[in-house]
Design goal:
Layout: E1 2-7, H1 15-18, E2 27-28, E3 31-32, H2 33-42, E4 48-53, H3 57-65, H4 67-70, E5 73-77, E6 83-87, E7 95-100, H5 107-113, H6 115-118, E8 123-127, E9 130-132, H7 136-146, E10 150-155, E11 163-166, E12 172-176, E13 186-187, E14 191-193, H8 211-218, E15 222-226, E16 231-233, H9 237-249
Parallel strand pairs: 1-4, 1-8, 4-7, 10-15
Antiparallel strand pairs: 2-3, 5-6, 8-14, 9-16, 10-13, 10-14, 11-12
């Protein structure tokens, strides 16, 4: 099953970083977030990726063009027509297809543009800026069980601010640093989709999260996979720093063995 990653947005809310590089190449530790995401899937045996490029997409192409080199020991023999020999590589077993889907294309339009690359097969889809310890195997199993056109992973994000438990008389009984929000479930990415979903996408201007998903819901063709574990987006510099702290402290719940 192929995994499609949306990696073409401008990332304006984290402009401190994205004026230099596309958002999926922003590093958590010394590893681009897109590689963290790919490793989540790779942990469950999914190694075939289609990456939808847009803003500064050439930089993502250049990164993967040199990926194998950067994850290998190498000998350059200039005495023998610059023969190159690789040793002890630790590159991931990935097959990566990079598709230019336009700078200003909507999220739905980007998926529509890679239609020929997924063909008539079930595929997975996610965003290039969200990390989770989601069980991909259970997600796929859930999708195959209900036999609808699409599955969307949902989660309850933490509240933005801490909460105080205040008793009568204004006595503080406790403090919860980041409680769950208002109890609502939000789109966490990590979709599974049948090719029939592409019929719900009109063209480049289509935003996946609007007409296509709304229409699928009205047609009773969209199911929610509820994820109650770790999930965190990288929307802002504050988010980036938070994920960086988790990674460095060894508390990154999404983390798999480094590939």
């Amino acid at each position: 099953m192929k995994v499609v990653i949306l990696a073409g947005g401008y990332g304006t809310r984290i402009g401190e970083e994205t004026h230099l590089r596309p958002k999926p190449l922003i590093e958590i530790g010394d590893w681009p977030i897109i590689c963290h995401i790919m490793s989540i899937y790779s942990k469950y045996g999914f190694h075939d990726f289609i990456i939808c490029l847009g803003y500064k997409g050439y930089m993502i192409k250049e990164y993967f063009a040199h990926y194998f080199l950067h994850h290998s020991d190498v000998t350059f023999d200039f005495r023998n027509d610059n023969q190159v020999t690789f040793h002890n590589h630790n590159a991931a077993p990935w097959r990566v297809t990079l598709i230019d889907t336009g700078k200003d294309t909507g999220t739905g339009g980007r998926v529509k543009r890679i239609q020929k690359y997924v063909g008539e097969e079930t595929f997975m889809l996610t965003y290039g800026d969200g990390l989770s310890n989601i069980d991909i195997e259970q997600l796929v199993k859930f999708h195959r069980t209900h036999k609808k056109l699409a599955t969307i992973t949902t989660t309850q994000p933490p509240g933005r601010f801490g909460a105080l438990d205040i008793a009568n008389g204004n006595t503080v009984r406790g403090f919860q640093e980041k409680p769950k929000g208002d109890g609502g479930w939000i789109n966490a990415g990590f979709f599974v989709m049948e090719p029939g979903v592409l019929d719900y996408i009109a063209g480049d201007e289509t935003v996946l999260e609007k007409e296509p998903l709304e229409s699928l819901a009205k047609a009773n063709q969209l199911m929610a996979f509820k994820h109650t574990g770790f999930w965190h987006p990288m929307d802002t510099l504050r988010d980036k720093n938070y994920l960086e702290e988790l990674w460095k402290s060894g508390k990154g719940a999404w983390a798999t063995s480094r590939i």
